[in-house]
Model the fold of this input.
Amino acid sequence: MHHPYKGFYARMLGGFVLYFQSQELTIPIRLQTKTMQLMLQLIKAGSDGIERKELVDTFQRNCYDWKRQINNFRQQVYLLRRAIQNAGFPPGNYIVLKGSRYYFTLDYQVETDTGRLDQLLPFIQNRSEENRGRIRELLMEFCRIYTGEFLPMLNGEEWVNVESAYYQNLYFKCLKQLCEILKMEGSYEEMLELCTAASQMHPYDEWQEMQIDCLMSMNRYQEAMKIYEEAAQMFYDELGISVNDQVMSRYRSAGGQFYYAANALVNVMDRLRENGEVQGPYCCSYPSFLDIYHVISRLEERTGIKSLLMICTIDVPEMTQTEKRRGKPENSEKTKEQQNWERSEPEMELFRQVLAGGIRSGDVYTRYSANQFLVLLVGADQEDSPTIISRLENRWKGIQKRRAAVSFAVYTVESSIMEGDRNESGNERNLYNTYQ
Done:
């Protein structure tokens, strides 16, 4: 990898790599150690350096004795200098104290990708609307340089989190502004490339929405549908977020409808036909389940065929003290919701198998939350519910080493067309408020 720098160049976004005159350098010390984090801070500071007190406060915050703080800090500086010497760095002085400030080195130029972003920012902020071409160039360079979170391997360190949030926020603002310019130009291919990169680096920040807009503007509807389906599945599988959340609901707006190119009827039928042999009930994602529920509720008004909505709740026991001791520390990066989702996974998979073999092929089910399934029993009424519940309970009891109890709640699917001109959006809100 080549860089137009005479001295050191560090890539700190999306990972960490240090170069000297285009040659990669390595230091045999883990990046997570305080010694290496000291070097990373000094490299990022470059020619500005960092006040000694600021460094001491950052890396010795758990020590309240000032003399001990200074001694510990000097020890870290000594270890870092020795590691640099043993790593075969070019001759020179490193971890230099000048006045009250420390520098990585004063013998060579030190450049970083974050430093380049800092240089670009004033020109972007002081832009003139009349010079749109120059603004476009600056924004494009900013977005190309940003290649991911700041030092992601140190996620959890306070100083890293502050820097990461700062550059991510700037990147989002610049990319949105650049996309507005590209959209006005009709440069959808460039816009798609940038938004695809953004969605890969930050998959939970809605950049799929812009990808879809780009593809639909270029009449690439099947690719747009694929991105939508993958995003919906990702949010559902990894975060337990359903389509009614703000992030996913945007995809389902009237302006977000997908279309396929015109085809012969036989091709249309091929696309609509369910793949493989039909066995057991229909398992689908929550977004699909919601659409099916709306259709069934409309059919009830027209045909009079009753259906039931059953909520199956798995009561996952609290972790035992032994499990807590074996588990991850309290400062785990995962949220409590994500931890609950993972803990309930074994029981939920077992109960999914119970549903797959315990209800009819015309029924529909989906996983709704960390410990709940929704089941749509098509053509069933309240008199059928005891038999269905009993069948599922018996199958569940037959599973060995079962720890979790299951409770069932059954509701009649109401017509979308209610008295008082109640519309389907009202029915949808009722579904959320009752079961979420």
About this structure: The first strand starts at residue 8 and ends at 11.
